[in-house]
Amino acid sequence: MLLDSKIEMTLRPMRYPQFFQQYRDSQKNLWTTDELDFSIDLTDLRERITAPEAHLIRRLVAFFATADNIVAHNLVLNLYKHVNSPEYRMFLGKQLYDEMLHVETYLLLVDTYISDPEERREAFAAYESIPSVKAKADFAFRYMDSIEKLDVLDTDDKKQQFVINLICFASCIEGLFFFSSFAYVYFLRSKGLLPGLATATNWVFRDESMHLEAAMTVVAELRVEYPALFTPALESTVRQMIGEAIEIELQFADDVLQLGVTGISRGQMADYLRYCADQRLVQLGYAPQYKVGNPFGFMTLQDVQPLTNFFEKRVTEYQKGFEVKLDEMSFSDAF
After folding, report:
1. What sections of 84-231 are H helices per DSSP?
2. Is 149 exposed, middle or buried (0-12, 13-18, 19+ CB in 10 A)?
3. Which of 13, 34, 208, 255 is the most buried (most CB within 10 A)?
4. Among 66, 106, 55, which residue's Cα sits nearest to residue 256?
5. How far is 335 from 112, CA to CA, in rounded Å?
6. Quick one: how far is CA 291 from the chain centroid?
7. pLDDT tens digit string along 302-331?
8. For the chain, counts of helices (H) and of strands (E)
9. What CA–CA distance (Å, rounded) separates 123 from 25?
10. Are the CB atoms for 258 and 281 separated by under 8 Å?
11. 261-290 confidence digits (pLDDT tens)
12. What kind of architecture, by CATH, is found in domain 40-301?
């Protein structure tokens, strides 16, 4: 079974072909930072960005600077060692590569957007020094620390702690914190700003969507194999955790929008987070809680691939297509 302490090492007979297929699908999303072009972004930052938008961008850079490293930390220390499925561990190997690629992307972004070395240092220390960013990091570390010392999941209580950690990182960290940041990016893109950042976000978003979907597939399998873990108390914990994540992300919204960014408001972000939260709850097998619509019309075009002029640039889209169902997944801007 999926959380047995004796780890299965062979792929035959294949017990979880759904995870193997997700690993195969993840290989279709191949890109490198060499394909990113931030040259137009630099012109936008110098000539077109307003002071409130510049503050928003600085906070997004600060969040992204370490966010994927936190996810990778949890993946290596708390997920890989407990999942008794070589098929899913193959997917986690690809996910770890993705997270390192995202780390490299945001390193390039910080180096490109921020010229002053001291400001760069401050951006990378934001998870400790900027309250709205620190609150998100503290939330993540709290759930990491809760299972980091568990070597064997030999009781239902320990297995349930693992499930809570998995749901936290899939639903709250990747499914809310990341998605809301992506929405800020797509908001700026809707204004014709920062196309390099928008392209990078497109690619990161597709990776994160697959990570989220794979984690939800694990939760669905755990429901079948360990139904006793999915108690009313667990549902209450999950709903409380998601509610807390929304409030933490709204603290970040209060920070990034404090100077007043024309065209986007704290109230809209609150509705968007609740909309995303309902998508996460449904994916987890629970009833939606907030029942609000998506307030961001610009998100409906999020998954449209940019056209490539073959006489001006080489193709930098994914090697193979990846379909995202907009009624099941939602995301947010980030810069």
Report:
1. 86-113, 117-124, 126-129, 131-145, 156-167, 179-190, 195-225
2. exposed
3. 208
4. 55
5. 13
6. 22
7. 544 333 332 333 334 444 444 444 334 333
8. 12, 0
9. 34
10. no
11. 999 999 999 999 999 999 999 999 999 999
12. Orthogonal Bundle (1.10)
Instruction: Answer for the pair 217, 334: CB distance below 8 angstroms, yes or no.
Output: no
Place of tokens 């955790």: 241
Buried-exposed string 284-309: b where 16+ CB fall within 10 A, e elsewhere: beeeeebeeebbbebbeebbeeeeee
Angstrom CA distances, 135 to 61, 123, 177, 280, 333, stand at 16, 15, 11, 21, 19
pTM above 0.85, yes or no: yes
Instruction: State the sign of the Cα–Cα–Cα–Cα dihedral 254, 58, 137, 198.
Output: positive
For the record, the structure tokens of 127 come out as 């998870």
The token pair that represents 82 in the structure block: 């407990």
Q: Which of 257, 281, 277, 259 is nearest to 267 (CA)?
A: 257
Residue 56 near residue 266, CB atoms below 8 Å: no
106 is catalytic: yes
Q: Which of 16, 106, 143, 184 is catalytic?
A: 106
Q: What is the dihedral of CA 209, 255, 240, 186, to 10 degrees?
A: -20
Query: Which amino acid, one-letter code, is at 59?
Result: R
Phi, psi at 192, each rounded to 5°: 80, 25
Q: Is the pLDDT of residue 203 over 60?
A: yes
Q: Give the H/E segment covering residue 302.
A: none
